[in-house]
Inverse folding.
């Protein structure tokens, strides 16, 4: 149904041609006055579209929508309180990138916007070719080219506005990412709003949060007057702003502005062709190389390889120290607690289980440090920009890039926040495809497994091995996405815009905070979940003990042993017999029927079952399993040394195992999050089954194929 009495508000930067447009639209039907309460000139008048009358209000010219000046407050309050049907943002096309800054803020606010691309005559003369259809598609709002001084494009403009009112979705705020620090701060603020206190319809909570972070005096005042909000919000707002300031070396408003410009700059780049050389900012100059179609990917691969070299090089010594430390600790406990279940629990279950995982803390930490540099410098956004092109040809979306990287695209990450980050994908099928491929990425939990096996079997080529694993995980994710998008998740992908904020020199403090936060998560997980599962696995591997009769036989044989060496050998065999008799031993042996073609023995099977809980458990369980059979922990050379000597373990089997760990069912928590985010147990179940099936096939291929080639 047509709304009979439309009101449109003209807004725009000073000198964008607003007054000219107002005159062209309204002709003689104009009035002048002041806005209620303030002496800012208010002009209103009527325009005609066919037989409809349209009220036009000329808002004061502004550069921004934050309440820094009276004009801004007046323009914004008019929009929020009077709720015009459409805001027509008049932009100077010859100065597009800068003028669109205001447009983005209208879009963030959520009011329906039509962009009048004014002064296109001047833009043409300057050698700018603006693809207005593409611009409209990328921004998601109608764009109408106009020449206000000559009255060109006025009818089209009014029709576009009227169309938007009849067919648009009303207020709908644009959500852009302002980088992880600000995004998280916004989430925290929004979670602290309580529903009934948000009286400022039609504002979205995220927008209010944004203004609070931007230190918008007007919104802060309103929030502070709201008894339901003020008490808890003000300290929180200050704390979050302070934190961003410390972490990024800039106040939130500056960071937010950077991301807005980044958002625009990537749109501008796609929709505008500059035939005449325009001035290049430093960031743009760097981007000419780093986002170049050919040089960009090469540079990215070099960066990845460099990171892996650095991480292994830097962590080698501290990892060795920790190994010595846990070896010493195990020995000390072994000596001070009498032999029995308690000693076994602490030495084999806790120290060799959790210690195995904690031993890789330095490696994880350096990896997070490298990732923090990539993020804080702004390079990660370029990585996403580069990958966007690749991803789309595999049926994923540009918005899939960030979740895939969060999930461990560089190595080190976590699928749980990654799956939640897919919320930025509006297209439900592309979103599901992303969710289902995130688990292929090399999350922080898989890293210790890789590190263990690489140290044991590929010690000469550590960086190369991790580099290869990264490329394999991406290839598998992309192929899986392609297949999913051809089969169960068929559909088109929608256009996408990537924020490209200017490069920044990371602050040491910021790097430290980002590295520490994630490393601490890893340590905490090792001390809680991994500890619990590790103890459980130990119990399954120690119980039930051998039947009394058999146990007595073993004791007698050990006691009767001739010489220390024979005694140790018998004790080792006794431990083996106990293991094989345990619940885990029996489960592992039962699974051997299935895993024998992959080259996995029963202990590996148990570790993989434990890995469903969390993939670090694979390391913890192998640690426990191989320490249970160990006679003298003081002589132990660390788990990787033990595995390298163990019969049945070889580089081929280790490679197959790493691929299996990479691909098989995502951990428990990830599956739960997939269920929650997809809204169905069906997809969660699917995510476990298809990955495990694929993992089996790949490991089978590697082991059998490798043997055929004479490897292993
Ligand atoms: P305002 O500050 O936004 O109200 O802008 P004005 O309407 O006063 O326009 C500023 C200047 O730009 C004036 O000299 C106008 O004549 C000129 N102008 C406005 N629209 C156009 C246009 O589409 N093309 C060209 N070439 N000049 C324009
Ligand atoms: Mg004017």
């Amino acid at each position: 149904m047509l709304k009979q009495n439309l009101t449109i508000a003209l807004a725009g930067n000073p000198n964008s041609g607003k007054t000219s447009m107002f005159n062209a639209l309204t002709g003689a039907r104009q009035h002048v006055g002041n806005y209620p309460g303030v002496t800012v000139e208010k002009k209103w008048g009527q325009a005609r579209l066919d037989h409809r009358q349209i009220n036009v209000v000329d808002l004061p010219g502004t550069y921004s929508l934050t309440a820094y000046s009276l004009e801004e407050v007046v323009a914004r309050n008019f929009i929020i309180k009077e709720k015009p049907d459409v805001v027509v943002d008049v932009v100077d096309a010859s100065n597009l990138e800068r003028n669109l800054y205001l447009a983005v803020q209208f879009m963030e606010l959520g009011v329906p916007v039509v962009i009048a691309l004014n002064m296109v005559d001047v833009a043409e003369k300057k050698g700018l070719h603006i693809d207005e259809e593409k611009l409209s598609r990328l921004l998601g709002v109608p764009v109408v080219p106009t020449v206000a001084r000559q009255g060109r494009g006025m009818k089209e403009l009014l029709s576009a506005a009227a169309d938007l009112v009849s067919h648009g979705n009303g207020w709908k705020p644009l959500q852009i990412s302002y980088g992880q620090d600000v995004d998280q701060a916004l989430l925290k603020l929004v979670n602290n709003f309580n529903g009934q206190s948000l009286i400022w319809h039609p504002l979205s909570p995220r927008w209010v949060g944004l203004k609070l972070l931007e230190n918008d005096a007007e919104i802060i005042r309103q929030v502070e007057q709201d008894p339901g909000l003020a008490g808890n919000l003000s300290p929180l707002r200050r704390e979050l702003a302070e934190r961003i300031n410390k972490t990024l070396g800039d106040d939130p408003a500056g960071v937010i502005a950077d991301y807005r410009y980044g958002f625009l700059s990537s749109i501008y780049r796609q929709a505008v062709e500059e035939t005449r050389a325009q001035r290049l900012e430093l960031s743009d100059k760097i981007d000419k190389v780093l986002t170049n179609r050919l040089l960009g990917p090469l540079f990215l691969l070099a960066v990845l390889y460099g990171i892996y070299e650095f991480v292994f090089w830097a962590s080698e010594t501290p990892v060795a120290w920790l190994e010595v430390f846990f070896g010493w600790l195990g020995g000390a406990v072994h000596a001070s607690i009498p032999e029995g279940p308690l000693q076994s629990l602490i030495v084999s279950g806790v120290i060799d289980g959790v210690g195995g995982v904690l031993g890789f803390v330095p490696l994880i930490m350096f990896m997070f440090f490298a990732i923090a540099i990539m993020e804080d410098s702004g390079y990660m956004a370029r990585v996403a920009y580069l990958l966007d092109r690749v991803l789309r040809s595999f049926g994923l979306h540009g918005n899939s890039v960030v979740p895939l990287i969060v999930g461990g695209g560089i190595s080190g990450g976590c699928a749980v926040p990654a799956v939640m980050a897919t919320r930025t994908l509006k297209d439900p099928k592309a979103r599901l495809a992303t969710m289902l491929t995130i688990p292929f990425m090399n999350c922080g939990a898989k890293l210790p497994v890789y590190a263990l096996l690489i140290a044991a079997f590929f010690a000469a080529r550590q960086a190369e091995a991790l580099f290869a694993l990264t490329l394999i995980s991406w290839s598998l994710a992309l192929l899986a996405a392609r297949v999913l998008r051809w089969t169960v998740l068929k559909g088109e992908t929608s256009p996408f815009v990537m924020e490209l904020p200017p490069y920044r020199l990371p602050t040491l403090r910021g790097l430290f905070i980002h590295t520490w936060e994630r490393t601490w998560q890893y340590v905490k997980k090792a001390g809680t979940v991994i500890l619990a599962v590790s103890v459980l696995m130990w119990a399954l591997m120690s119980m039930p003990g051998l039947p009394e009769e058999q146990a007595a036989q073993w004791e007698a044989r050990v006691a009767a042993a001739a010489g220390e060496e024979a005694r140790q050998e018998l004790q080792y065999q006794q431990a083996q017999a106990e293991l094989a008799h345990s619940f885990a031993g029996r489960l592992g042996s039962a699974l051997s029927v299935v895993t024998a073609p992959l080259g996995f023995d029963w202990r590996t099977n148990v570790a993989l079952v434990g890995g469903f809980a969390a993939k670090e458990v694979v390391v913890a369980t192998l640690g426990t399993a191989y320490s249970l059979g160990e006679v003298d922990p003081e002589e132990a050379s660390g788990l990787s040394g033990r595995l390298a000597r163990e019969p049945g373990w070889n580089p081929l089997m280790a490679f197959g195992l790493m691929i299996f760990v990479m691909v098989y069912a995502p951990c428990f928590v990830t599956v739960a999050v997939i269920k929650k985010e997809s809204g169905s147990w069906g997809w969660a179940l699917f995510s476990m089954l298809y990955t495990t099936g694929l993992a089996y096939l790949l490991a089978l291929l590697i082991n059998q194929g490798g043997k055929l080639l004479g490897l292993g």
